[in-house]
């Protein structure tokens, strides 16, 4: 296989993991935010104090911020690595190494993709991914 083939396989893998991460974080954000809002409304109805609903809304806002930051950390590197590898852009190696680190803990496919990415980006033969 050529370096272009390896880049294409890694780009597809990183794109798949970026979509999986994005879907997971959006789903968790919606469900957790809904739970916080429902909890705030329930507490406000039980106590009769409408100000208690603010705690639920505050929890939902915190949830959006939390999953937004987590999404930036986990979704952005694989998405950028995928795009840069597909387009053969500069810094593809840098983002590919970061994306390999991000997907490495996801057993078993993420680990395989991460190890494959490390092998490709740190191989002795200079690859075509552009450093």
Quick structural overview:
The chain has 131 residues and is mainly α. The chain contains five helices and no strands.
Structure in words:
The chain has about 130 residues and is an all-alpha fold. It has one domain (about 5-120). The chain has helices spanning about 5-45, 55-75, 75-85, 90-105, 110-120. Helix 1 (about 5-45) packs antiparallel against helix 2, helix 1 runs antiparallel to helix 3 and helix 4 (about 90-105) packs antiparallel against helix 5 (about 110-120). The longest helix has about 45 residues, at about 5-45.
Cα shape: rod-shaped
Give the total of domains.
1
Mean pLDDT: 89
Strand content: under 5%
Largest sheet: none
How large is the radius of gyration?
A: 20 Å
Which residue ranges are poorly predicted, with pLDDT under 50 across at least 5 consecutive positions? none
Order of helices and strands: HHHHH
Tally of helical segments: 5
Which helices and strands occur, and which strands form pairs?
Blueprint: H1 3-47, H2 53-74, H3 76-87, H4 92-103, H5 109-121
Distinctive features:
5 helices; mainly alpha; 131 residues
């Amino acid at each position: 296989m050529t370096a272009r083939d390896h880049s294409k396989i890694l780009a597809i893998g990183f794109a798949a993991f970026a979509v999986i991460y994005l879907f997971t974080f959006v789903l968790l954000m919606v469900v957790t935010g809904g739970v916080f809002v429902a909890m705030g409304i329930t507490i406000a109805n039980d106590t009769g104090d409408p100000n208690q609903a603010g705690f639920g809304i505050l929890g939902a806002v915190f949830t959006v911020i939390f999953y937004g930051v987590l999404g930036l950390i986990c979704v952005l590197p694989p998405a950028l690595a995928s795009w840069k590898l597909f387009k053969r852009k500069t810094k593809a190696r840098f983002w590919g190494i970061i994306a390999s680190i991000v997907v490495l803990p996801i057993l078993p496919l993420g680990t395989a993709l991460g190890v494959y990415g490390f092998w490709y980006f740190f191989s002795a033969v200079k690859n075509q991914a552009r450093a």
